[in-house]
UniProtKB/TrEMBL annotation:
GO molecular function: hydrolase activity
Pfam families documented for this protein: Isochorismatase
InterPro entries given in the database record: Isochorismatase-like_dom, Isochorismatase-like_hydrls, Isochorismatase-like_sf
Name assigned to this protein: Cysteine hydrolase
Domain Isochorismatase-like: start-end pairs: 11-174
Keyword Transport: no
Gene source species: Brachybacterium huguangmaarense
Keywords, ordered alphabetically: Hydrolase
Length: 193
């Protein structure tokens, strides 16, 4: 019975808590990152390291695709995946007992994440950026039939206006996608084996 409860228990997915999105010197830094990260740490404590996953966006090496155009527009980010820009921020690695889910795409929903969370998952999303990687992950997961909850104040947008626009779009996808605040009613994580 406990095993069935754990299988149905939601997963917290912390999207891309990386230096490139947190460092104020980065062109991609989110001004809301520090406040969002404080809430993410509290959420991760609630879910526990066994039910928390951390993702990283890493650049693709294939510049023959539209990603080549993207990196020409953002040359500061066109560095190897092992560059310190792509490292996790301090404290992010300990949020999960699992290896990071590394993807060269904005959206993190795909075979790797699906294999980690199993069948009929419920994902609780937090992280950066609301208007890029969070929305791309939420929409792809919902389209695949996954229940998705986005913790709005545990997400950091590129700008407040872009964050509001992204939340408006995500709000159009209920009931597949729920929007909640960290102090609101969240799906309960399993607390035992």
């Amino acid at each position: 019975m406990a095993r069935d409860a754990a299988a149905a228990s939601p997963w917290l997915v912390v999207i891309d808590p990386q230096r490139i999105f947190a460092d104020p010197a980065s062109a991609w830094a989110s001004p809301a990152f520090p406040a969002a990260m404080e809430r993410i740490v509290r959420l991760a404590a609630r879910f526990g390291p066994e039910r928390t996953l951390v993702t990283r966006w890493l650049p693709t090496g294939d510049r023959s695709t539209a990603w080549g155009d993207y990196f020409r527009a953002w040359p500061f980010a066109d560095v190897p995946a092992d560059d310190p820009l792509y490292a996790l921020v301090e404290g992010a690695a300990v949020l999960s007992a699992h290896p990071t889910v590394d993807e060269p795409t904005f959206g993190k929903w795909g075979p790797q994440l699906a294999a980690r969370v199993g069948e009929r998952p419920h994902l609780v999303l937090a992280g950066v950026s609301t208007d890029c990687c969070v929305i791309a992950t939420a929409l792809a997961a919902a389209d695949a039939g996954v229940r998705v909850t986005v913790v709005t104040d545990a997400c950091a947008a590129s700008t407040p206006e872009n964050g509001q626009a992204a939340l408006h779009v995500l709000g159009l996808f209920g009931p597949q996608i729920d929007l909640v605040e960290s102090t609101g009613s969240l799906p309960e994580a399993a607390t035992g084996p």
